Every structure is written in structure tokens, then in C-alpha cells.
Amino acid sequence: MHQGRYIFGAVLALVAPGAMAATTPVLSTDFTLADPARVPSNWTLNGSAKFDVTFNGATPVVQPIVSLTQNRNGQLGAIWTNDTYTLPSFTMYADINVDFHPVGAGVSAECPADGFALAFANSTTPNTNGSSGGGIGLYGNDAEIPQFMAAEVNTWYGNSIDDTSTCTTGKNVTFEFSNIDSSTGTGRSMGGTPEAGGAFVGQVTAPDSLQNGGFINGGWFRLQWDVDTASRKMDLYITGLDDTNNKIQNLKVAEVTFAASAPPLNFKGRFGLTSGTGGGTEGLRVRQVVVFSPAVPGGTALPSATAGP
Asked: Can you spell out the DSSP letters for 90-157?
């Protein structure tokens, strides 16, 4: 299923030209359209991904925030950069909001699902996505997304590691990494390891501050995903951006070091975010994405010049 929409047009003329300082990001996008130097001219929206729509009474209002899933079941959404990159290391920041307010008859009103990913993939085109449900808009399309790595947030209790029987225990939010190369057989299997790669590598349960409404329906957060191709290390940090969650600052929630036997991390790829729902639902919104290369030290706050909304 492809519903790719290239974001082009007159906004291209607004991108700031000229030489950049050493700390200038290789990619900086403001999906709120508040910064004319950071308009989303380099991205393609796929599947259920779209600019958010809210209602002022009966009048629909398009909000300048990208929404990947909208609390309906069976959704898959992905946004990918049109450009590809080969980088020795990188740090990817993404400002996201995850909410759980199911919409529609027959949709589970109890448990959110399934999750989302910050991804770097050698997809053959930016006009692509994976499958819905547990595929989180990333897995299940080996032909067009044959190799990727990702930092993932899982929200489905059946894929948790502390309690797989119910979402009422507050242990359904987990963090993990993937390192997938379909040509070597390291696919979606949840049994991934640092030695072999695969999916759900280094999975950890979110701390209590990010469970029970701390993360889902908890406001806006900034995720920082660091990847070093030389050391083969990844880590993930989270920072709260609202008055209600800003006690969480540069909190490391997961890390992993892949062995040399795992698929390599030094391939040419696109940056993206993906999300999917199945029987359970959730909404994922994105305000901005910023990428630095080389990677910045773990837990480094996004510089104020590019901090965005």
C-alpha cells in the first residue's frame, strides 16, 4: 500500500543557503512550519501519515504537525527522507507525542498498541512502508526495506518482557533496538541478539515514570538516538518537553553494543519514523527531526539554535 506524498513547492526557496558551522545538523526539519529555514521539503509521507487534523466545532483545522497514526486500528504510517546519507555516526533527535484515545466501533478501549520507531534504512524509495500492527510500519517489506536499524518504542503488552498477560500492570511500554538485514536472515524475530542482530535487541521495560500515562498521554517528549558505526553502539535518551513531564531530562532508557558478527551499521540509508496499529490503537505525532553527524555525546541537549518548537 503506497500513498506517498512528496512535500515540495515554493517552500524550497525558503531553505537557508550558505556555509554552516561545524555543529550544524545534516538534517533539520520543523514540521510545525514555524521556521521557514527548516520546512519539510525533504520528506515523503506514506500510508496513514498526514498533517494532523483537529476540529474547531464542526470545522476541520489542519495543524502543522505530522501525524503517523490517528488512534484507529489497522494503521501504518511512515515518513522517510527523500535524500540518502552515508554517515560514520549520527544522533537523531525527534520530538514526538503518543496518545491513546481509540476511535471507531469495535476498537479496543483498554490497551494501546503497537509502537513506533526512529529508523535508518536503505529503502529503495522514500515512497514505502512496512506492515501494520506489530510491523509498526517498518517490518514486513523486505523487497523495498531490505536493511535497517532502529530504536523502537513498543507499547503492546503482548510484546513486553515483564508481563505479557495484560496492559493494566503498567509494564507495557518497552524500549529496544533492531539491526536487520533480510539478505542474511536477520528478520522480525523477537529473539534478536547483540551477536546476531535482528529485532527486539536489548529490550528493557520503561521506568515507572514513563509507564501508566507517563509516556502515552504524557505530553511531548524528545527522543535522542545515538549510533556509532565504529563501536557498533546504540543508545536512546528521553527528555520531557512540557511543564507536566519536564522532570525527565536526558534519561537514558536503553543501550546496546552489536558484535562484529551482526549486520554492519555503515550502509547508505534514509532517516525516518514509522508507526503501526492493529486491534489496539494509538496516535503518534511528530513536531521536528534533527540529525547530527558525527554523533553528539549521549544525553546532550539539542542546541537551542535548532531546538525548535
From this structure: EEEEEEEEEE----STT--SS-B--EEEEEEE--S-SS----SGGGTTTSS-TTT--EEEEEEEE--G
Query: Whole-model pTM?
Result: 0.89
Nearest to 301, CA basis, from 214, 244, 245, 238? 238
Q: What is the extent of the structural domain holding 237?
A: 5-306
Q: What is the mean pLDDT of the chain?
A: 86
Say which CATH number the domain at 220 has.
2.60.120.200
For residues 139 and 115, give the distance between their C-alpha atoms in angstroms, rounded to a whole number.
Answer: 12
Contact 210, 154 (CB under 8 A): no
In the chain, how many domains are there? Answer: 1
Residue (of 296, 186, 188) closest to 235 by Cα position: 296
| Choice between 62 and 277, residue whose per-residue pLDDT is larger | 277
